Inverse folding.
């Protein structure tokens, strides 16, 4: 099993392949990725403190002293601070009436078709949490990216680029994240398995809305995970983009190409696995700008047989849970 520091960096697909050599969970991972392209990039590691992860961040660094001959230098020492990142438990129960499953003619297939709706829903919920989750206001959740980068004057304000629009409540953001074990990564509880865990509970007694019992099939799904931002300099948020003002040739509204170029220059470095994340409206505008000869930075490439939009060779992923109704970041 990979641990932080052992040199192994594994996406969810990598870990499932290691944990499930027979491939019985592969289809679940594929369904999760359908609605959550971020899963293609996130490296996952077991937490180092049961259900939480403790890391040490540098608070101050020695700066050295310019000295004269026969003059000494002041003693210095860098200071550190400890940060604890938590995990959250996302669960659901998929159930169906035994008689309906029988009438379908294929019980196993019917249950799988029913369960897929729950898997897709969990994927969307996890994606929302990784963007907007806030453990300070909802202790049962994890803290996502947006609450960490929610003020230009806050701790991480230097890594927020203001697109300059002012339609309060009608904004969206583009996030540039450079994933890596010393940068940004996902965690799962120490001693457990990564990803969505599945338990087929089989034929059980179910209850209707009136408390009356009937026989049915039930499956338990559980996803225990968290997000660690080990170094805040590896995330850039382009905030205050007014979706309604955008045009395919950047004649009005935010200049996305310029903003994304600024983000690439602002992030600490691109050593790791960088990617942009935006909603489908932003991604659609960028795709249409491919035809604009002035935007040679934007390309549509083939990666592992899949067409991938890229900006300056950095993938641009579609994340439908990024809202177009964000409040203004100020």
């Amino acid at each position: 099993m990979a641990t932080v520091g052992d040199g192994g960096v594994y996406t969810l697909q990598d870990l499932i392949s290691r944990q499930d050599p027979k491939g019985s969970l592969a289809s679940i991972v594929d369904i999760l990725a359908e609605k959550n392209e971020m899963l293609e990039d996130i490296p996952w590691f077991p937490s180092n403190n049961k259900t939480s992860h403790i890391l040490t961040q540098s608070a101050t660094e020695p700066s050295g002293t310019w000295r004269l001959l026969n003059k000494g230098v002041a003693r210095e020492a860098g200071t550190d601070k400890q940060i604890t990142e938590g995990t959250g438990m996302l669960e659901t129960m998929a159930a169906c009436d035994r008689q309906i499953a029988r009438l379908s003619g294929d019980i196993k297939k019917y249950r799988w078709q029913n369960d897929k709706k729950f898997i897709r829903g969990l994927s969307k919920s996890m994606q929302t949490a990784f963007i907007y989750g806030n453990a300070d206001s909802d202790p049962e959740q994890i803290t996502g990216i947006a609450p960490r980068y929610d003020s230009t004057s806050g701790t991480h304000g230097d890594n927020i680029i203001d697109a300059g629009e002012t339609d309060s409540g009608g904004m969206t953001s583009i996030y540039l994240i450079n994933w890596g074990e010393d940068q940004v990564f996902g965690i799962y509880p120490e001693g457990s398995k990564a990803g969505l865990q599945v338990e087929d509970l089989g034929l059980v007694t179910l209850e209707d809305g009136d408390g009356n019992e009937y026989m049915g099939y039930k499956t338990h799904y559980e996803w225990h995970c968290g997000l660690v931002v080990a170094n805040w300099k590896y995330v850039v948020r382009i905030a205050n983009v007014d979706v309604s003002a955008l045009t395919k040739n950047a004649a009005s509204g935010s200049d996305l190409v310029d903003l994304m170029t600024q983000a690439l220059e602002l992030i600490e470095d691109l050593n790791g696995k960088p990617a942009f994340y935006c909603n489908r409206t932003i991604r659609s505008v960028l795709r249409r700008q491919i035809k604009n000869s002035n935007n040679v930075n934007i390309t549509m490439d083939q990666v592992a047989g899949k067409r991938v939009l890229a900006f300056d060779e950095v993938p641009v992923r579609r994340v439908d849970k990024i809202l177009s109704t964000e409040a203004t970041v100020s």
